[in-house]
Protein: DUF418 domain-containing protein
Amino acid sequence: MPDYLCRNAFCFYRASVYHRWLTQASWLLGTLTLALVLLNVVQTWQYNMGLIHCCEMTWEIYKQYFLKLSWPES
Structure:
């Protein structure tokens, strides 16, 4: 927020709260992005290894192979 818009203590407090919220939101967004990128990498590896199939995948099979890095025993 520009200085010419903030002339009293309340504006400084509001800017501080906004900055704190923005910092927390960026951490949350960064963590979520990292988690989704890692999920994408694992599922790409699973697809390349043949663990998941592009066309014949059902919800039950997907749940069975979710984040698995090897074929299940059963």
